[in-house]
Amino acid sequence: MSVRLHAGQNRNPCIGQSNRCISCLCTLLLVLLLSTPLNHALAEKRKEKSATTVQKYIRNVTVQVEEIFPNHNGGIYGAANNLKINTRESTIRRDLLFKEGDSYDPFLIRESERVLRTLRFLRDVTITDVHDGDAVDVTVKAQDTWTIIPQVSFSSGDGRQKRSVGLAESNLLGWGKRLEMVYSEDEQAESLQGVYDDRNLFGTVNQLQMGYLDGSLGETTIFDIGNPFRSLAQDDSWRLQVEVNDGLGRLFEAGDESFVYQTQSEDISLYYAIAEGKPSEVRHRLFGGIQYRSERFQRATEEDLYDLDIDPDSIDLNADMLADNRRFSGFFLNYSSIEEDFMPMNYIDRFSRVVDYNLGEQFTTRAFISPRLLGSEDDTLLMSGFYATGWRLSPASFLRGEINGNGRMTSQRLENGIFHSELKYYHLFGPVFWGDQYLGKHTLGISFELDHAVNLDEDKQFLLGADNGLRGYEARTFAGDKGWLLNIEERAHIAENIYELVSLGGAVFADIGGVTDESFGRLFSDNTYADIGAGLRFAFPRSSGERVLRVDFALPLRDGIDGSKTFEVRIIFSGGQLFSSRLTNERLGLSRATTEQDF
User: Fold this and answer.
1) Half-sphere exposure of 565 (CA within 13 A, CB side)
2) Which of 160, 395, 546, 579 could form a disulfide with 447 if both were Cys (CB 3.0 to 4.6 A apart)?
3) pTM of this prediction?
4) Cα 569 to Cα 85: distance, rounded to the nearest angstrom
5) C-alpha separations of 379 from 113, 265, 268, 326, 417 in Å
C-alpha cells in the first residue's frame, strides 16, 4: 500500500514567505560547516582518553578490493575488469570506524563491516582481525561490482506501462560517488531525471545530493547536504534539505484518474543532532531544527489534461475536490533510541547479498511546533513517531514489527492522522532436495500491513494493486483511507552465478487485502480481494546492489472493479521483489534521491 503524496513547485520561482527562513538556514549552515572540524577534534580527544583504559591496539589495517571477475585476465570477463575503475582504497577507509594506532574495539569492527555492506557498489564484505599480543592486525576484504548500469528497463502487466532508458554510475571513478541520467515513460507521463550523490564532499564526511526531474507531471528539484547518521558510533549529525515541486497531482479510482489538479510546494528543513549512550548497547539521539513547508493547490487546465492524454469529460474537474492550501513554519525536536542487535542474513530479497537486520528495540518521536507567529496558516502541532522491534526465532529465522503514526493537531481537530502497523517474518530453509534432486535454497517470507487514516487530506489516498501488493489486479485499483494487506511468498534460489553473470530463482505466492473508504467491517467483508500465482526471479550478483528482475503470473480469486476476471492470468514484468524485508522507517530513513524510485 502507498499514500500518494502530491507536491510541487510554485510556477512563480519566488518562495514568498520563506525568504526569512532561507536566510536563517544559510546562517546555520555556515555555522555547522565551520563547526565540523571542531566536532571531530573533540571526538578524537575522546578516543585518546579511552585508549588509556584499553590494552590492545590496532597495528595494521589492510584493505583488499577484489575485481568483479577474479582470476580472469582475458576474454569478456577480463575486458570488464579492465573497463571498470576499481574502488579506491581511500573510499573504503573513509567508512571505517577505526585506523592504525586506535584502541581495539570489536564493536567498531562489526559496525564498520555493517556500514560497508550498505554500499551498493561492494559485495562479499568481510573484516577479520588477527591478534598478536597487544597488537591487532585488521584485514578488510570486499569485491567490486559492475556499477556502470544501462538503465534499459520496463514493467508491464500491472495496469501500468513503464519504460526507461539511461545510464547510472554508482561508483564514479572509484570514489563512491553516484551519477544517474534517465528518460522514462510511465503511462502518459514522460520525464527526464538526473541525480548526483557525493558521499564525501571535498574529501570530508559531509554528503551532497542533488536531483532534478522534468516531465509531463511537472518539475522537482532536490538539494540535500549534511552529515547524516551512517553508524551507531557517530556522535553528531546535521542536514539541510530543500525540495521544490511544481506539477500535477492525481487521484485514482478503479485504476484510472478520477481527479487531476495543479500543486506547488516547497519544503526546507535544517537540523543538528547529537548521540549519547554506548553504541554497542543503546544509542540515544536528540535532533533540533527548523522547517518551512508550503503546499498550494489549483484546478488543472485543459492543457494539463492534454499533456497527460486525458479526456476532460472522463474525470471530475469540480474545484470542491481541491485540498486546502497548507503552510507550516516553525521548529521541531526529535528523540530516538536504538538498541543494537543486528542479524546478518542473505537469500531474503537479494539472493546471496548479505543484509543486516536490527532486531533491537527502536523508538522515535517528533514534534514540529508551527505557530501563526512564524508564518503558519494556523497554530499547529505536527506529530509523528514509531516503535519497532524484532525477535530472533532461530539462527535461520526472525520476526520484525513496527507501529507508527503521524498527524497534526489544530485548535479544531486531528488532521491527516495516519496510523500504520506491520509484521515481517522470514525463514531460511536452506538447500531443499526431492530425493537426489536439488530444488534450490528456499526462503519463506510473510508480510502483513494494516493502515487507517483519520481526516485524511483531500490530496492523499491509500492505493493498492499489482504494483504494490495485489498482483492479480491492476495498479491503483483500490483506493481509500483504510486498508490491509497480507503477502505470503515461498522463494527458491535455484541456480547461482551462471557464467558468473546471472542467478535464477522462482516463487509461489498468495496475496490478500483491500482498501476502502467504508468501515473496517465492510473492508474485511466486501472489499477484500486475493490472488495466487508463481513467478521467476533473475538476479545479477555482479551488478551494483545485485539487481533483481521479477516475472509473476497471478490469478485473481475474485472479479475486480478494474475489470479483472477470476482466474484470468495477469503477467507482470518488474524490478525488485513485490514486498521488502525492510520496515517502513528503514525504507524512509535510507531513501535517497534516485532515478530508480522517481526521486
Assistant:
1) 2
2) 579
3) 0.85
4) 45
5) 46, 20, 19, 12, 17
Residue 468, classified by CB atoms within 10 Å of its CB into exposed (0-12), middle (13-18) or buried (19+), is middle
Q: Taking a C-beta distance cutoff of 8 angstroms, is the pair 595, 192 a contact?
A: no
Cα(326)–Cα(490) distance, integer angstroms? 45
Q: Which of 384, 403, 402 is nearest to 334 (CA)?
A: 384
Residue 537, beta-bridge partner list? 505, 550
Please indicate whether residue 258 or residue 241 has the higher confidence score (pLDDT): 241
The set of cell numbers assigned to 415 is 488532521
Give SS3 for 116.
helix
Please give the mean pLDDT across all residues of the chain.
87
Reported confidence tier of residue 32, pLDDT bands at 50, 70, 90: very low
Whole-angstrom CA distances from 575 to 152, 176, 578 are: 11, 23, 9
Q: In sequence order, what are the beta bridge partners of 149?
A: 168
**Mean pLDDT over residues 490-508, rounded?**
94
Confidence at residue 52, expressed as pLDDT on a 0 to 100 scale: 45
Question: Phi/psi zone of residue 440: left (φ > 0), alpha (ψ -120 to 50 degrees), beta?
Answer: left
Smallest CA-to-CA distance from 3 within 456, 558, 411, 319 is with 456
Cβ–Cβ under 8 Å, residues 551 and 155 = no
For 218, 240, 408, the CA distances from 244, given in Å and listed in that order, are 11, 14, 22
**pLDDT at site 28:** 45
- Residues 345, 324: Cα–Cα separation, whole Å: 46
Do 263 and 248 form a contact (C-beta atoms < 8 A)? yes
The DSSP secondary-structure symbol of 476 reads T
> What phi and psi values does residue 80 have, to the nearest 5 degrees?
-65, -40
Q: Are 424 and 400 in contact (CB under 8 A)?
A: yes
Q: d(Cα 470, Cα 538) in Å, to the nearest integer?
A: 21
Q: Which long-range contacts (CB under 8 A, 24 or more apart) does 416-420 make?
A: 416/453, 416/455, 416/456, 416/457, 416/460, 417/453, 417/454, 417/455, 417/456, 418/3, 418/451, 418/452, 418/453, 418/454, 418/456, 419/451, 419/452, 419/453, 419/454, 420/449, 420/450, 420/451, 420/584
Alpha-carbon gap, residue 480 to 461, rounded angstroms: 6
Q: How many CB atoms lie under 10 A from the CB of residue 34?
A: 9
Q: Provide the grid cell at 494.
A: 535455484
Is 546 in contact with 351 (CB distance < 8 Å)? yes
CA 142 to chain centre: 24
